Amino acid sequence: MRWWPASGLAVVVIAALAPGAAAAADPYCTATYSNAAPRAGAPLRFGIDPGLAGTAGGAQLPATPDDLGRDVAAVRALRPAHVVLVARLNRLFWSDGQSGIDQFRALVSRYAKAGVDSELQVRYHPTSAENGNIAAWVAYVRHVVDVFGRDRHVLDMTITNEVNLDFSPNTSDGAYENARDALIDGIEAAHAEAVKRGFRQLQFGFTYAYRWNPQSDAALFQYLRSKGGSAFRRALGFVGVDFYPGSFFPPTMAGSSYRTATAQALGVVRNCLMPMAGIGSRTPIWITENGVATGTSESYAAQASALTQLVQAVRDYSGTFGVTDYRWFNLRDSGSAPTGSLPVLAATFTNDGLLTDTYVRKPAFAAYRSLIARWGRRLPARHRGRHRRRHR
Question: Considering the domain 39-391 in this protein, what is its CATH number?
Protein backbone atom coordinates (compact mmCIF):
# COMPACT_ATOMS: atom_id res chain seq x y z
CA MET A 1 0.00 0.00 0.00
CA ARG A 2 1.08 3.58 -0.61
CA TRP A 3 -0.32 6.08 1.84
CA TRP A 4 0.11 9.75 1.03
CA PRO A 5 1.64 10.79 4.39
CA ALA A 6 4.68 8.69 3.44
CA SER A 7 5.22 10.90 0.41
CA GLY A 8 6.37 13.78 2.55
CA LEU A 9 3.93 16.21 0.97
CA ALA A 10 3.19 19.23 3.12
CA VAL A 11 -0.32 19.59 4.50
CA VAL A 12 -1.65 23.12 4.39
CA VAL A 13 -5.01 24.60 5.28
CA ILE A 14 -6.74 26.16 2.27
CA ALA A 15 -10.35 25.09 2.86
CA ALA A 16 -11.47 28.71 2.97
CA LEU A 17 -10.63 29.17 -0.71
CA ALA A 18 -13.25 28.76 -3.42
CA PRO A 19 -13.28 25.23 -4.90
CA GLY A 20 -11.56 26.19 -8.15
CA ALA A 21 -8.88 28.15 -6.32
CA ALA A 22 -8.38 25.25 -3.90
CA ALA A 23 -7.72 22.85 -6.75
CA ALA A 24 -5.21 25.23 -8.32
CA ALA A 25 -3.38 25.90 -5.03
CA ASP A 26 -3.35 22.26 -3.93
CA PRO A 27 -2.42 20.13 -6.97
CA TYR A 28 -2.61 16.79 -5.14
CA CYS A 29 -5.53 17.63 -2.81
CA THR A 30 -3.54 16.90 0.35
CA ALA A 31 -4.60 20.00 2.27
CA THR A 32 -7.11 20.12 5.10
CA TYR A 33 -10.73 20.33 3.92
CA SER A 34 -12.49 19.27 7.13
CA ASN A 35 -13.01 22.77 8.57
CA ALA A 36 -16.19 23.55 6.64
CA ALA A 37 -19.32 24.21 8.70
CA PRO A 38 -21.76 21.28 8.80
CA ARG A 39 -25.12 21.81 7.12
CA ALA A 40 -27.64 19.03 6.63
CA GLY A 41 -29.36 18.71 3.29
CA ALA A 42 -32.42 16.79 2.15
CA PRO A 43 -33.08 13.28 3.51
CA LEU A 44 -30.56 10.75 2.24
CA ARG A 45 -31.33 7.85 -0.05
CA PHE A 46 -29.83 4.84 1.70
CA GLY A 47 -28.69 1.53 0.27
CA ILE A 48 -26.89 -1.72 1.00
CA ASP A 49 -24.64 -4.11 -0.95
CA PRO A 50 -26.14 -7.59 -0.49
CA GLY A 51 -23.51 -9.47 -2.53
CA LEU A 52 -20.27 -10.98 -1.30
CA ALA A 53 -17.25 -8.69 -1.01
CA GLY A 54 -14.58 -9.07 -3.62
CA THR A 55 -11.09 -10.08 -2.56
CA ALA A 56 -8.52 -7.36 -3.12
CA GLY A 57 -5.84 -8.51 -5.54
CA GLY A 58 -5.94 -10.62 -8.65
CA ALA A 59 -8.33 -13.42 -7.70
CA GLN A 60 -11.34 -14.15 -5.54
CA LEU A 61 -10.58 -16.19 -2.43
CA PRO A 62 -13.08 -18.75 -1.09
CA ALA A 63 -15.99 -17.30 0.90
CA THR A 64 -19.07 -18.60 2.69
CA PRO A 65 -21.60 -19.00 -0.15
CA ASP A 66 -24.56 -16.65 -0.46
CA ASP A 67 -28.10 -17.74 0.27
CA LEU A 68 -30.17 -15.48 -1.96
CA GLY A 69 -33.41 -16.05 -0.08
CA ARG A 70 -31.78 -15.05 3.21
CA ASP A 71 -30.11 -12.06 1.54
CA VAL A 72 -33.46 -10.80 0.25
CA ALA A 73 -35.16 -11.38 3.60
CA ALA A 74 -32.41 -9.49 5.42
CA VAL A 75 -32.57 -6.52 3.05
CA ARG A 76 -36.36 -6.43 3.40
CA ALA A 77 -35.99 -6.48 7.20
CA LEU A 78 -33.44 -3.68 7.03
CA ARG A 79 -35.83 -1.32 5.24
CA PRO A 80 -38.12 0.62 7.60
CA ALA A 81 -41.72 1.13 6.54
CA HIS A 82 -42.28 3.93 4.02
CA VAL A 83 -38.53 4.64 3.59
CA VAL A 84 -36.43 4.10 0.47
CA LEU A 85 -33.71 1.45 0.58
CA VAL A 86 -31.78 0.52 -2.58
CA ALA A 87 -30.04 -2.80 -3.21
CA ARG A 88 -26.67 -2.05 -4.78
CA LEU A 89 -25.92 -5.12 -6.90
CA ASN A 90 -22.20 -5.19 -7.45
CA ARG A 91 -19.76 -6.98 -9.75
CA LEU A 92 -21.59 -7.25 -13.07
CA PHE A 93 -18.47 -8.13 -15.06
CA TRP A 94 -18.19 -7.43 -18.78
CA SER A 95 -16.18 -10.66 -18.99
CA ASP A 96 -19.24 -12.65 -17.82
CA GLY A 97 -21.13 -11.65 -20.95
CA GLN A 98 -24.80 -12.53 -21.35
CA SER A 99 -24.78 -15.09 -18.56
CA GLY A 100 -23.82 -12.35 -16.10
CA ILE A 101 -26.59 -10.12 -17.40
CA ASP A 102 -29.13 -12.93 -17.02
CA GLN A 103 -27.98 -13.57 -13.46
CA PHE A 104 -28.41 -9.91 -12.54
CA ARG A 105 -31.84 -9.75 -14.14
CA ALA A 106 -32.89 -12.54 -11.81
CA LEU A 107 -31.44 -10.65 -8.83
CA VAL A 108 -33.30 -7.46 -9.76
CA SER A 109 -36.53 -9.44 -10.02
CA ARG A 110 -36.10 -11.05 -6.60
CA TYR A 111 -35.47 -7.74 -4.88
CA ALA A 112 -38.30 -6.03 -6.74
CA LYS A 113 -40.73 -8.68 -5.48
CA ALA A 114 -39.54 -7.82 -1.97
CA GLY A 115 -40.31 -4.13 -2.54
CA VAL A 116 -36.67 -3.06 -3.02
CA ASP A 117 -35.37 -1.26 -6.11
CA SER A 118 -31.85 -1.87 -7.42
CA GLU A 119 -28.81 -0.20 -8.88
CA LEU A 120 -26.02 -1.91 -10.78
CA GLN A 121 -22.25 -1.77 -10.57
CA VAL A 122 -21.28 -2.31 -14.22
CA ARG A 123 -17.64 -3.42 -14.21
CA TYR A 124 -15.22 -2.92 -17.08
CA HIS A 125 -13.31 -6.12 -16.06
CA PRO A 126 -12.63 -7.35 -19.62
CA THR A 127 -11.45 -10.71 -20.82
CA SER A 128 -7.81 -10.87 -21.90
CA ALA A 129 -8.95 -10.78 -25.52
CA GLU A 130 -11.04 -7.63 -25.02
CA ASN A 131 -8.70 -5.78 -22.66
CA GLY A 132 -8.44 -2.20 -23.93
CA ASN A 133 -11.10 -2.60 -26.65
CA ILE A 134 -13.22 0.45 -25.86
CA ALA A 135 -15.49 0.07 -28.87
CA ALA A 136 -16.51 -3.41 -27.71
CA TRP A 137 -16.94 -2.15 -24.14
CA VAL A 138 -19.22 0.67 -25.29
CA ALA A 139 -21.36 -1.83 -27.19
CA TYR A 140 -21.66 -3.92 -24.02
CA VAL A 141 -22.65 -0.88 -21.93
CA ARG A 142 -25.35 0.06 -24.43
CA HIS A 143 -26.67 -3.51 -24.30
CA VAL A 144 -26.77 -3.42 -20.48
CA VAL A 145 -28.77 -0.19 -20.61
CA ASP A 146 -31.15 -1.69 -23.18
CA VAL A 147 -31.76 -4.78 -21.04
CA PHE A 148 -32.12 -3.17 -17.62
CA GLY A 149 -33.49 0.25 -18.54
CA ARG A 150 -36.86 -1.31 -19.41
CA ASP A 151 -37.21 -2.35 -15.77
CA ARG A 152 -38.37 0.59 -13.65
CA HIS A 153 -36.95 -1.11 -10.58
CA VAL A 154 -33.41 -0.43 -11.88
CA LEU A 155 -32.63 3.15 -10.92
CA ASP A 156 -28.92 3.77 -11.40
CA MET A 157 -25.66 2.38 -12.71
CA THR A 158 -22.06 2.97 -11.77
CA ILE A 159 -19.97 2.55 -14.90
CA THR A 160 -16.56 1.05 -14.06
CA ASN A 161 -15.30 0.74 -10.50
CA GLU A 162 -12.41 2.54 -8.81
CA VAL A 163 -10.42 3.33 -11.92
CA ASN A 164 -7.86 5.10 -9.72
CA LEU A 165 -6.81 1.73 -8.19
CA ASP A 166 -4.27 -0.06 -10.38
CA PHE A 167 -3.31 -3.07 -8.25
CA SER A 168 -6.53 -5.07 -7.76
CA PRO A 169 -8.19 -6.28 -10.98
CA ASN A 170 -10.66 -8.42 -9.03
CA THR A 171 -12.20 -5.47 -7.18
CA SER A 172 -11.22 -2.43 -9.27
CA ASP A 173 -10.81 -1.53 -12.93
CA GLY A 174 -7.68 0.61 -12.89
CA ALA A 175 -5.47 -2.43 -13.59
CA TYR A 176 -6.93 -2.83 -17.09
CA GLU A 177 -5.90 -1.10 -20.31
CA ASN A 178 -7.65 2.16 -21.21
CA ALA A 179 -9.66 2.08 -17.98
CA ARG A 180 -10.04 5.88 -17.84
CA ASP A 181 -11.44 5.89 -21.38
CA ALA A 182 -13.77 3.05 -20.38
CA LEU A 183 -15.13 5.31 -17.62
CA ILE A 184 -15.66 8.34 -19.87
CA ASP A 185 -16.92 6.60 -22.98
CA GLY A 186 -19.00 4.18 -20.95
CA ILE A 187 -20.90 6.92 -19.13
CA GLU A 188 -21.42 8.91 -22.31
CA ALA A 189 -22.70 5.82 -24.14
CA ALA A 190 -24.96 4.75 -21.27
CA HIS A 191 -26.54 8.19 -21.03
CA ALA A 192 -27.02 8.47 -24.79
CA GLU A 193 -28.66 5.04 -24.93
CA ALA A 194 -30.97 5.85 -22.02
CA VAL A 195 -32.06 9.09 -23.67
CA LYS A 196 -32.60 7.33 -26.98
CA ARG A 197 -34.73 4.63 -25.35
CA GLY A 198 -36.62 6.93 -23.01
CA PHE A 199 -35.28 5.34 -19.81
CA ARG A 200 -35.65 8.50 -17.77
CA GLN A 201 -35.26 6.87 -14.36
CA LEU A 202 -31.62 5.94 -14.95
CA GLN A 203 -28.64 7.89 -13.64
CA PHE A 204 -25.02 7.10 -14.39
CA GLY A 205 -21.88 7.80 -12.40
CA PHE A 206 -18.48 6.43 -11.46
CA THR A 207 -16.77 5.44 -8.22
CA TYR A 208 -13.54 6.80 -6.79
CA ALA A 209 -11.59 4.95 -4.08
CA TYR A 210 -10.62 7.51 -1.46
CA ARG A 211 -7.68 7.65 -1.43
CA TRP A 212 -5.00 5.61 -3.18
CA ASN A 213 -2.18 7.85 -4.35
CA PRO A 214 -2.46 11.66 -4.43
CA GLN A 215 -0.59 12.12 -7.70
CA SER A 216 -2.41 9.42 -9.67
CA ASP A 217 -5.78 10.36 -8.14
CA ALA A 218 -5.32 13.96 -9.26
CA ALA A 219 -4.18 12.73 -12.69
CA LEU A 220 -7.44 10.78 -13.06
CA PHE A 221 -9.61 13.83 -12.44
CA GLN A 222 -7.44 15.98 -14.71
CA TYR A 223 -7.87 13.33 -17.41
CA LEU A 224 -11.65 13.45 -16.96
CA ARG A 225 -11.51 17.17 -17.71
CA SER A 226 -9.21 16.98 -20.71
CA LYS A 227 -10.70 13.88 -22.34
CA GLY A 228 -14.28 13.97 -21.04
CA GLY A 229 -15.38 17.44 -21.93
CA SER A 230 -18.89 18.80 -21.84
CA ALA A 231 -20.51 15.63 -23.20
CA PHE A 232 -19.15 13.64 -20.29
CA ARG A 233 -20.23 16.21 -17.72
CA ARG A 234 -23.76 16.34 -19.16
CA ALA A 235 -24.02 12.55 -18.99
CA LEU A 236 -22.67 12.32 -15.44
CA GLY A 237 -25.34 11.91 -12.75
CA PHE A 238 -23.16 11.55 -9.67
CA VAL A 239 -19.62 11.01 -8.36
CA GLY A 240 -19.38 7.98 -6.08
CA VAL A 241 -16.88 7.85 -3.21
CA ASP A 242 -15.75 4.51 -1.76
CA PHE A 243 -14.57 5.41 1.74
CA TYR A 244 -13.10 2.95 4.27
CA PRO A 245 -11.64 4.86 7.23
CA GLY A 246 -9.45 2.78 9.49
CA SER A 247 -8.81 0.03 6.95
CA PHE A 248 -8.03 1.59 3.56
CA PHE A 249 -7.66 5.34 4.12
CA PRO A 250 -6.87 6.64 6.58
CA PRO A 251 -5.28 3.27 7.45
CA THR A 252 -5.76 3.89 11.16
CA MET A 253 -8.11 6.10 13.14
CA ALA A 254 -5.54 6.81 15.87
CA GLY A 255 -5.66 10.51 16.68
CA SER A 256 -8.63 11.13 14.38
CA SER A 257 -12.40 10.75 14.43
CA TYR A 258 -14.84 9.30 11.94
CA ARG A 259 -16.55 12.69 11.73
CA THR A 260 -13.37 14.56 10.84
CA ALA A 261 -12.29 11.86 8.39
CA THR A 262 -15.68 12.04 6.67
CA ALA A 263 -15.61 15.83 6.38
CA GLN A 264 -12.07 15.63 4.99
CA ALA A 265 -12.97 13.01 2.38
CA LEU A 266 -16.05 14.91 1.21
CA GLY A 267 -14.17 18.21 1.13
CA VAL A 268 -11.30 16.74 -0.89
CA VAL A 269 -13.70 15.36 -3.50
CA ARG A 270 -16.06 18.33 -3.69
CA ASN A 271 -13.64 21.23 -3.38
CA CYS A 272 -10.48 19.89 -5.01
CA LEU A 273 -10.86 16.78 -7.19
CA MET A 274 -14.21 17.55 -8.82
CA PRO A 275 -13.14 21.08 -9.85
CA MET A 276 -10.04 19.53 -11.44
CA ALA A 277 -12.40 17.56 -13.66
CA GLY A 278 -14.63 20.55 -14.36
CA ILE A 279 -17.49 18.82 -12.54
CA GLY A 280 -19.72 21.48 -11.04
CA SER A 281 -21.63 21.82 -7.80
CA ARG A 282 -24.88 20.54 -9.30
CA THR A 283 -23.45 17.03 -9.65
CA PRO A 284 -24.09 15.25 -6.34
CA ILE A 285 -21.68 13.12 -4.36
CA TRP A 286 -22.76 9.64 -3.35
CA ILE A 287 -21.06 7.57 -0.69
CA THR A 288 -21.16 4.41 -2.80
CA GLU A 289 -19.22 2.27 -0.31
CA ASN A 290 -18.56 2.84 3.38
CA GLY A 291 -17.46 0.14 5.77
CA VAL A 292 -15.78 -0.75 9.06
CA ALA A 293 -14.74 -4.31 9.80
CA THR A 294 -15.21 -6.49 12.86
CA GLY A 295 -12.73 -9.16 13.84
CA THR A 296 -9.22 -8.75 15.15
CA SER A 297 -9.30 -4.97 15.59
CA GLU A 298 -12.94 -3.91 16.11
CA SER A 299 -15.67 -5.45 18.26
CA TYR A 300 -19.28 -5.69 17.13
CA ALA A 301 -20.14 -2.77 19.40
CA ALA A 302 -17.30 -0.69 17.99
CA GLN A 303 -18.51 -1.33 14.43
CA ALA A 304 -22.03 -0.19 15.33
CA SER A 305 -20.62 2.93 16.96
CA ALA A 306 -18.44 3.67 13.92
CA LEU A 307 -21.38 3.18 11.55
CA THR A 308 -23.49 5.59 13.60
CA GLN A 309 -20.75 8.21 13.62
CA LEU A 310 -20.15 7.87 9.88
CA VAL A 311 -23.81 8.10 8.89
CA GLN A 312 -24.38 11.05 11.20
CA ALA A 313 -21.36 12.85 9.75
CA VAL A 314 -22.55 12.27 6.18
CA ARG A 315 -26.01 13.52 7.11
CA ASP A 316 -24.63 16.59 8.94
CA TYR A 317 -22.37 17.55 6.00
CA SER A 318 -24.75 16.51 3.22
CA GLY A 319 -25.81 20.08 2.52
CA THR A 320 -22.28 21.42 2.86
CA PHE A 321 -20.83 19.10 0.23
CA GLY A 322 -23.88 18.11 -1.81
CA VAL A 323 -24.28 14.47 -0.74
CA THR A 324 -27.57 12.79 -1.65
CA ASP A 325 -26.94 9.03 -1.27
CA TYR A 326 -25.28 6.64 1.18
CA ARG A 327 -24.49 2.91 0.84
CA TRP A 328 -23.03 0.61 3.51
CA PHE A 329 -20.69 -2.13 2.35
CA ASN A 330 -21.90 -4.69 2.92
CA LEU A 331 -24.83 -6.79 4.11
CA ARG A 332 -23.01 -9.97 5.17
CA ASP A 333 -19.48 -11.03 5.97
CA SER A 334 -17.69 -13.09 3.36
CA GLY A 335 -16.28 -15.01 6.32
CA SER A 336 -16.59 -14.12 10.00
CA ALA A 337 -13.51 -15.92 11.36
CA PRO A 338 -10.72 -13.67 12.69
CA THR A 339 -8.83 -12.18 9.76
CA GLY A 340 -5.35 -12.45 11.27
CA SER A 341 -4.55 -15.60 9.31
CA LEU A 342 -5.46 -14.00 5.96
CA PRO A 343 -3.20 -11.89 3.74
CA VAL A 344 -3.68 -8.17 4.50
CA LEU A 345 -5.39 -7.33 1.22
CA ALA A 346 -7.60 -10.43 1.33
CA ALA A 347 -8.86 -9.51 4.79
CA THR A 348 -9.61 -5.86 4.00
CA PHE A 349 -13.34 -6.20 3.26
CA THR A 350 -14.08 -9.65 4.66
CA ASN A 351 -15.82 -8.65 7.91
CA ASP A 352 -17.55 -5.36 7.09
CA GLY A 353 -21.03 -6.92 7.04
CA LEU A 354 -24.05 -6.09 9.16
CA LEU A 355 -24.52 -9.86 9.45
CA THR A 356 -22.07 -12.64 10.17
CA ASP A 357 -21.43 -15.16 7.43
CA THR A 358 -24.14 -17.33 9.03
CA TYR A 359 -26.68 -14.47 8.86
CA VAL A 360 -26.61 -13.61 12.56
CA ARG A 361 -27.31 -9.91 13.01
CA LYS A 362 -24.55 -7.78 14.44
CA PRO A 363 -25.51 -4.67 16.47
CA ALA A 364 -24.70 -2.59 13.38
CA PHE A 365 -27.77 -4.04 11.62
CA ALA A 366 -30.20 -2.47 14.09
CA ALA A 367 -28.13 0.71 14.23
CA TYR A 368 -28.25 1.16 10.45
CA ARG A 369 -31.98 0.43 10.29
CA SER A 370 -32.63 3.07 12.96
CA LEU A 371 -30.56 5.66 11.08
CA ILE A 372 -32.36 4.89 7.81
CA ALA A 373 -35.69 5.40 9.55
CA ARG A 374 -34.50 8.68 11.06
CA TRP A 375 -32.75 10.33 8.10
CA GLY A 376 -33.86 8.37 5.05
CA ARG A 377 -35.84 9.55 2.05
CA ARG A 378 -39.52 8.74 2.35
CA LEU A 379 -41.35 6.68 -0.22
CA PRO A 380 -43.87 8.64 -2.29
CA ALA A 381 -47.36 8.04 -0.95
CA ARG A 382 -48.47 6.44 -4.23
CA HIS A 383 -45.90 3.65 -3.79
CA ARG A 384 -46.55 2.80 -0.15
CA GLY A 385 -49.37 0.36 -0.75
CA ARG A 386 -47.31 -1.52 -3.35
CA HIS A 387 -44.34 -1.84 -1.00
CA ARG A 388 -46.56 -2.83 1.94
CA ARG A 389 -48.11 -5.68 -0.06
CA ARG A 390 -44.69 -6.94 -1.15
CA HIS A 391 -43.33 -6.68 2.36
CA ARG A 392 -46.13 -8.93 3.57
Answer: 3.20.20.80
